[in-house]
Amino acid sequence: QVKLLQSGAELVKPGASVKLSCKTSGFTFSTSYMSWLKQVPGPSIEWIGWIYAGDGGTNYNQKFKGKATLTVDKSSSTAYMDLSSLTSEDAAVYFCASPGYYGPFDYWGQGVMVTVSS
Amino acid sequence: DIVLTQAPLSVSVTPGESASISCRSSKSLLSSKGITSLYWYLQRPGKSPQLLIYQMSNLASGVPDRFSSSGSETDFTLKISKVETEDVGVYYCGHRLEYPFTFGSGTKLEIK
Fold first, then answer.
1. CB < 8 Å from B in window 42-101 of A
2. Which residues contact A111 (CB under 8 A, 6 or more apart)?
3. What is the pLDDT along chain A (118 residues), one digit of tens a residue?
């Protein structure tokens, strides 16, 4: 059974950075493309990018280059996303997602809310 | 970027009736392999999105056959027959034809 367990809600100050985690189980992490997505009230969903766990190769949505950095730890089957220089525009719920038989977002984490406030 | 435009923004349906949601793409979603790269997701209140439909018209495992989808290369329709209370939520279309993957802005389904 595929599971994606994300870290808890974050309250961060403007200008700071935050690192989100997504611990996976139930599938072969080392050959997976792990995606991160952003959801703001509206509602809308934006794809941030993905990382290939096998070699750490990445593909970012141009909009999020310089804002998000994706990494993985194969030993713990965990994906990470660093968000830097946070502003109010970065306040959102962030999801990790993994592919399956059907496509790139077959499985989703529970989401983590990031609040940016001083 | 490919823009996916959904309509309506919201729909209110009596249980047992049908509902249709439209998704229009700014570009053909037909890939060079002959696959139409259109997906439908449902996000129930307080939950993560879940996959309903892949490659325009195929039901994901466990999805009731009350859900169906069809379309052309740029215009798509999700139909929900005999709507149930568990169908409440926001429906999104999305594609994976090219980078960046994008989603429609969502259609909220409510029960009358």
1. 42-47, 59, 61-63, 95
2. A6, A39, A93, A94, A95, B48
3. 999 999 999 999 999 999 999 999 999 999 999 999 999 987 689 999 999 999 999 999 999 999 999 999 999 999 999 999 999 999 999 999 999 889 899 999 999 999 999 9
Interface test with B, best of A105, A110, A113 (most B CBs within 10 A): A105
In whole angstroms, what is the distance from residue B7 CA to residue A27 CA?
Answer: 36
CB atoms within 10 A of CB B59: 18
Q: Please name the residues in contact with B64: beta carbons below 8 A apart, sequence gap of 6 or more.
A: none
Question: Which residue of A lies nearest to B46 if distances are taken between CA atoms?
Answer: A110
Q: Which of B41, B60, B100 sits opposite A62 (nearest CB)?
A: B100
Neighbours of B8 (CB within 10 A): 13
**How many C-beta atoms surround the C-beta of residue B55 within 10 A?**
16
Query: Which residue in B has a C-alpha nearest to residue A5's C-alpha?
Result: B48
Query: Which pair of structure tokens corresponds to residue A66?
Result: 């310089």
